[in-house]
Design a protein that fits this description.
Elements (H helix, E strand, L loop, with lengths): L10 H15 L4 H8 L3 E10 L5 E12 L5 E2 L2 E3 L5 H18 L5 E7 L7 H15 L8 E2 L8 H15 L20 H20 L7 E5 L3 H12 L3 E7 L2 E9 L1 H11 L9 E2 L2 H5 L5 E4 L8 H6 L4 E3 L8 H9 L3 E3 L1 H4 L2 H15 L5 H26 L6 H19 L5
Parallel strand pairs: 3-6, 4-5, 7-8, 7-11, 11-12, 12-13
Antiparallel strand pairs: 1-2, 2-5, 8-9, 9-10
Helix pairs in contact: 1-2, 1-3, 1-15, 3-15, 4-5, 6-7, 6-13, 6-14, 13-14, 14-15
The structure holds glutamic acid.
């Protein structure tokens, strides 16, 4: 991913600062912060994988289990060359808060392997996925901790992991992981769920901002699973995709681009850049565009203070986790940009993961219509809970992100208190 952050921002410090602020805003005892600032448990494991040339390569794998007050730990596994323990800890914190906002009965967790999937064969990916599961199986389980896809992982990776876990247990235990293929207990609509959730979140934000999605212009940073489907769904509502960037470059056309054709071009050439009829644009240029909506759908810390200063869009719908730095948030607040925060905007993924887990546990499966209806209802409810919280409890003085953190923290703090975890 083209990285806008020149000096590395520590994502874990950012995540902790979000909790601290919410604790202060709610006037809760510092004990609550102490209980939540560090994950309950972080495992770092050496993952030996036989490569195609016969040599054994050792990868570093992580699983961070942040908090399970509201239910088993839950969160994806990412494969990325630059991932480290602090990033995984931060991402697990966000999952705790995301699940509390969405009111799904899960805590927060996150996993990762430092590797470059682009340089690995399918067989190497399979062996890595299975070895990761062997290393982590003792701490995972449908009632303990339930992984899912994230950056550079997909249904196939989940299938290998679920299969490996089932072999270890000696029976099919599909509820251990979500985002699986349909034939292995997956859920219809899981692949598109995060993006569909982004659509609903942006649609609600557009409603409160008095913007019609029908004539809205929008841009997307990152053209993977979330970025592509978000572009497609927004275009289906009549929105115009005027720019998209990926790790190799970008495409810009004020007249609008067809999201499907853009994906076809990316699949054929490896990037969205040089899409017929488009001009080149970089990520900084994308954020400076005069458009209504921007969907960050790449990695953390992309909207820095410098980038925020140039933003002219009126809505940011965070498809990615942690794309905006705290300094940038202040600037966007000043500029009256409505930022629908990650822990709300991208919760469609974990919401449908919850549906998948429920179906696995019941061995009873719902139709696609049913899933879509339930997802839309949950997303709209979550948006309105947070928006009302911001307007009523906070007299509209806080951002949507602060309101989301406060709302989630209130739920968590109360649940932790009755369980005797602080007080
Ligand atoms: N990786 C996704 C996220 O960051 C989905 C997590 C899940 O479904 O457990 O929200």
């Amino acid at each position: 991913m083209e990285n806008l952050t020149k000096e590395k921002i520590n994502t874990y410090q950012v995540a902790k600062s979000r909790i601290k602020r919410a604790v202060e805003q709610l006037d809760l005892p510092i004990n609550v912060y102490e209980r939540l600032k560090a994950p309950d448990r972080v495992i770092e494991a050496a993952i030996p994988v036989e490569m195609d040339d016969g040599k054994i390569k050792i990868f570093t794998g992580y699983r961070s289990q942040h908090n399970n007050t509201l239910g088993p730990y839950k969160g994806g596994i990412r494969f990325h060359p630059e991932v480290d323990a602090d990033e995984v800890k931060a991402l697990s914190i966000w999952m705790t808060f995301k699940c509390a906002v969405a009111r799904v009965p899960f805590g927060g967790g996150k996993g990762a392997v430092a590797c470059n999937p682009r340089q690995m064969s399918k067989k190497e990916m399979e062996r890595l996925s299975r070895q990761y599961m062997r290393a982590m199986a003792p701490i995972l389980g449908p009632e303990k901790d339930i992984p899912a896809p994230d950056v550079n992982t997909n249904a196939q990776v989940m299938a290998w992991m679920a299969d490996e876990y089932s072999k270890i247990q000696q029976y099919n235990d599909f509820g251990v992981i979500t985002g699986k293929p349909l034939d292995m207990g997956g859920c219809v609509g899981r692949e598109t769920a995060t993006a569909r959730g982004v659509l609903y979140a942006v649609r609600e934000a557009a409603r409160v901002k008095g913007i019609s999605l029908k004539d809205a212009t929008f841009a997307v940073q990152g053209y993977g699973n979330v970025g592509y489907f978000a572009a497609r769904f927004l275009a289906e509502q009549g929105g115009k995709l005027i720019a998209a960037t990926d790790s190799s470059g970008g495409a810009y056309n004020q007249g609008g681009m067809n999201p499907e054709l853009l994906l076809k071009h990316k699949n054929e050439t490896g990037s969205v850049k040089n899409f017929p009829g488009s001009d080149e644009i970089d990520t900084e240029g994308l954020y400076a565009l005069d458009c209504d909506i921007i969907v960050p759908a790449a990695l953390e810390n992309q909207i820095t203070a410098k980038v925020a200063q140039k933003i002219r869009a009126r809505i940011i719908g965070e498809g990615a986790n942690g794309p905006t730095t705290p300094e940038a948030d202040e600037i966007l607040k000043e500029k009256d940009v409505l930022v629908v925060p990650d822990i709300l905007a991208n919760s469609g993924g974990v919401i449908v993961s919850y549906f998948e887990w429920v179906q696995n546990n019941y061995r009873y499966y719902w139709s696609e219509d049913e899933i879509e209806r339930r997802l839309e209802r949950k997303m709209v409810e979550a948006f309105n809970h947070i928006y009302e919280y911001k307007c009523n409890n906070c007299k509209d003085t806080v951002t949507m992100r602060e309101a989301a953190f406060m709302y989630a923290l209130q739920r968590l703090a109360e649940a932790m208190k009755v369980r005797g975890w602080w007080g």
